[in-house]
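Researcher: Here's a chain I'd like modeled. Treat it as a single chain, no partners, no ligands.
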Amino acid sequence: MSNKWLDPALLLLTTLSLLVGGIAHVAQKPDWAAMCWLSGSLVMALVLLVEIVRRLARREAGVDLIALLSIGAALVFEQMLVAAVIALMLASGRTLEYFTAQRAERELRALVDRAPRFAWLQEPNELRQIPVEQIQPGQTLLVRMGEVVPVDGRLLSPTATLDESALSGESLPVTRREGEQLRSGVANAGAPLQLMATQTAAQSTYAGVVRLAEAARRSRAPFVRLADRYALLFIPLTLLMAALAWQLSADPLRALAVLVVATPCPLILAVPIAIMSGISKAARRGILIKDGATLEALAGAKQLFLDKTGTLTSGHARLQSVEVNGQVDPQHLLGLAASLAQASVHPISQAIVEAARQRRLPLSTPQEVEESPGSGLCGLIEGQRVRLGTLSFAHTGASASDWATAMLRHMDYLACGGSFIEVDGALCGLLVFSDSLRRETPQTLRRLRNSGIERIVMLTGDRLETAEMIALSAGIDELRAGLTPQDKVRAVQEGCTRASTLMVGDGINDAPALAAATVGVAMGASGATASAQAAGVVLLVDRLDRLVEALEIARRTRQIARQGVLAGMGLSLLAMTVAALGYLPPLAGAVVQEVIDVVIIINALRALAPSPGPRLRRMAGEHIDRLQDEHRQLTTVLSDLHQLAGDFARRPLEQARTDLLELVNKLQASLASHERDDENTLYPLLTLSMPGEDPLAALSHGHREIFRCIHLLARMSSDLSADSSTVPAEEIQHQLIRLDTLVQLHFDQEEELFRYLDRR
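Model: Modeled as a single isolated chain. C-alpha cells:
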C-alpha cells in the first residue's frame, strides 16, 4: 500500500477494531472484544516500530517512542481497550495531519501539476505535437487558448492576452505585444498565439519554478528537527515521571496513564503543517520559498543587502543619449556597441541591443568576446577592437580626459549611468542610460525596517557619485559602490558574521552573493532558473514589495510553529502531572491527549490565514508640539535658501561661491538633520497612529527628495569652488529654486498633518 494512504487506512482499521470490539463486549463476548482491540493496537504498534527504526537509522530521535511504549504498556497490563483507544487517537491525529498538510501544500502542488508536457510545433506545412523536452531555441510554437506557454520565447503574434497569476499572484490578465519576451508558465487567456522559443524547456523560467516547488514540497524544516530533539529530554522525563508515579502509588495504571498523555506524535507532526502552510501562503502571493530551512532563516533576518540594477531600480534601462568624443557618427558608434552587447545577458547590454534594433541599425556578429562581470565587454567587431563598459575598463591604462571627466559629472547630476566605448584604443563615446527607481522601493524599505530589518546596504558596481543619488532616493542606510562580484561576496560574508543576512539580486550576475548570504532572494521569475541553487527565495513577480510579504509570512509562521511546540509540550506535561497524581485514568488520558493534539494542529493552520492588521495608537501631544517648535527654529535657514534661490545668478562669482558653501553647510547641519530625525524617529510613531499600510509615503518621498537636492547642491558647490567654468550659475540657481519650493510644500504638508493629529 502506498504511504499516501497509510494514515487514512490506519484510521479505518483502528476505528473498526474498536467498534467491533465494543459490540462484542456488549454481547458478552469478552475474549472476542479483547482480540479485536488487540489487533488494532498491534497494527499501530508495528507501524510505529518500523518508523522508529527508520528514524534511528537516520540518527533522528522522536517522541514516537513514547506512543509505542504507551501501547506496549497497555497491552502488558492487559488494558486492551486503552491500547485500542490510544491506537485510534494516534491514527486520527495522523490522518488529520495528512489531510491538513494536503490542503496546505495545494498551491505548490498546483504549480507542479500545471507544468505542460507537450507543445505544438509550427512547421511550414503542418502543426505537430511534440514533448516539451524536444523544443529547441529558434523553433516556432503555437499556444492555443487556455494552454500554458511551454518555454521562454519571443512573441510573434501582434498581441497576446495572458494570465500570469501562476507566477505573479495577480488575477487580472495582461496584454503583451509583438517582440516582447514571454515567460513559460503563463497561460494564454486569448486567441491562439505564436512565439519563437528562446530557451529549452529545462532552461526556461517555469522549469526553475517547478524545481523549486518540488524542493519545497519535499522539504522538512530544521525547526521540525529541533522539535524532535525535544525528545532527548522529553522521553527520559516521561519515563521518570511514570516510574515515580508507579513507585509512590504502587499502582502500575498510573504509570500507564502518564505514558498515554505523553504521546504527542500528532503534536510534533503539526509543526510541519505550520511550515508548509507558510510556504503555501507565500506561493499564493508569487513568493516561492525553497524549503522550511529557508523560511526559518528568513524569519530571523536582521540585515538586508540589495543589488541596484534590477532590484532597487526597474532594471529596464533605456538609452537616453549617445555622446561622442570628436568627429564620430553616433549611429555607427551605437551599432558597434550593440553588436558587441549581443553576447551578454546583462540588462544594460540588452538595452543597447534594443535601442539599435529600434533604430533599425545593422548588427554584426561579435568575435573573441570576453566579459568582465560588473565592468564590461570587449571583442572584435568587423576587425575593430571594441571595449564597452566603465571608464576604467573601456579606457584601460589611460588617464581620464577633460571630455570623460565632464561626461562623468553630467551623469552624476542627472543620476544616470553610462557605458564608455573605446574603438581600437581611442575613447570614442558614451552611451547614457536612465534606470528609474522602482516606485515601490522607498515604501518597501520603510516597511522592512518596521518589520525588524535593522540595516539596509546597497551593493553596486556603479560609480559612487551615480549610486549616491539612487541611495538617497531609496532611503538606504549604507552604500558600497564600485564593487566587483567578488567584492559583493566579501561584503555579504562580512555581514553574515554580524547577523542573519538577506541578499536580494536579479538572480543572474549576483548568484555568488546570493549563495553567500544566509538567505538569497532572486528578483523576478526570469531569474528562477539561474538562481535555483543560489537563492532560497524567488519572487516570481518582479516587485520588490513582495519581499515584505515574504518576511511577514515567515515570521508569523515561525511564531505559530513555536507556539505549537511550546503549548503542546506544556499541556502534555500538565496532563502527565495530573495523571501521575491519579486524577486522570489511562482511557480518559488518551482522549485528553487527542484533544490537545487536534487543537495544536488547528492552531498550526493559522499560518494559512491573513495576518492581523496593526492596532492604531494615539499620537502623544508633546511629540506634535516638539515638531512644530523645530519647524519654527528652521525659519532662518529657510529664509536664506529663499533669498539665494532668488538672486544667485546675479551675485558676483566670489560672493556666490561663499554664500553657496555657507548655505550648504547650514542645510546639512540643520535641515537635513531635522528631516532625517523625522524619517527615522517621528514617522514610525506617526504610522502607528494612522490607518493604512504606509500612510506617510508621500511625505517620506519629500524627505528623500530634500536629501537628494542638498547632496546635489553640495556637489555643485564643490565643483564651483574647484573650477567655476564647469557648472553654470543658472543650473545652480535652478536647483536652489527646486529645493526652496520643495521644502516649503513639505513643511506645509507636515503642518497640516500635525493639526489633523492634534484634533484627534
